[in-house]
Amino acid sequence: MNHYSKLFSACAGLFLFGALVSSCNSGSNSNSTEAPMTDSMTHSGSQEVQSSAVANISPSYTDTAVEGKATFTTETDGKVKLSLTLHIPAKANKEVAVHLHEHGDCGDMGKNAHGHWNPTNDTHGKWGSAHFHRGDIGNVKLDADGNGTLEMTTDLWQIGGSDSTKNILGRAVIVHGGFDDFVSQPTGNAGNRIGCGVIQ
Question: CA triplet 151, 152, 154: central angle to 5 degrees?
């Protein structure tokens, strides 16, 4: 009996030792198929910088025809180029203000877009002056047929990315019925929001 007890104890000891070795090895198995946690996985919610984006501008009022397109392109140097075209027959031979607004929502005649996009909490003004909003694009001169264009390039914008002071995706392009005087706060006294499009 004593012989069998010793044999059982020895077998039990070997079993426990084997289980312990197996447990230790499983934590450092270089052939494990489980993917390691990488930096890109921990920041999976952040947006990548895009090469281009578009806002198709539609009328906010049924009695004022507004057609337009704002195309944003990331240049090779990282700057963003805006190419804007407008067609507003009722505003022929006049200037209309165009701004980027905070929210990409054109509801309630453009009012749901809220105020000018202003992540730096600056005062309203002319683009490139001492003080202006990141959304203060400026005025577009329309010809006798109501057609107008505007182009600009800046390093203050990005199409996507995690920098909320530069990211223009999801903002609204608003066309106003009047021109921006670059002085009146906080909108430049530019008038009603006659056109709107979301950058996407």
Answer: 160
CA 118 to chain CA mean position, Å: 14
Q: Calculate the dihedral angle through the C-alpha atoms of 182, 157, 117, 176, rounding to the nearest 10 degrees.
A: 50
pTM: 0.75
Q: What is the DSSP letter of 88?
A: -
Q: Tell me the pLDDT tens digit for each residue of 16-33.
A: 444 433 443 444 333 333
Distance CA 193, CA 180 (A): 12
Pairing of strands 95-101, 138-141: antiparallel
Angstrom distance (rounded) from CA 30 to CA 34: 10
Helix (H, G, I), strand (E, B) or coil at 152: strand
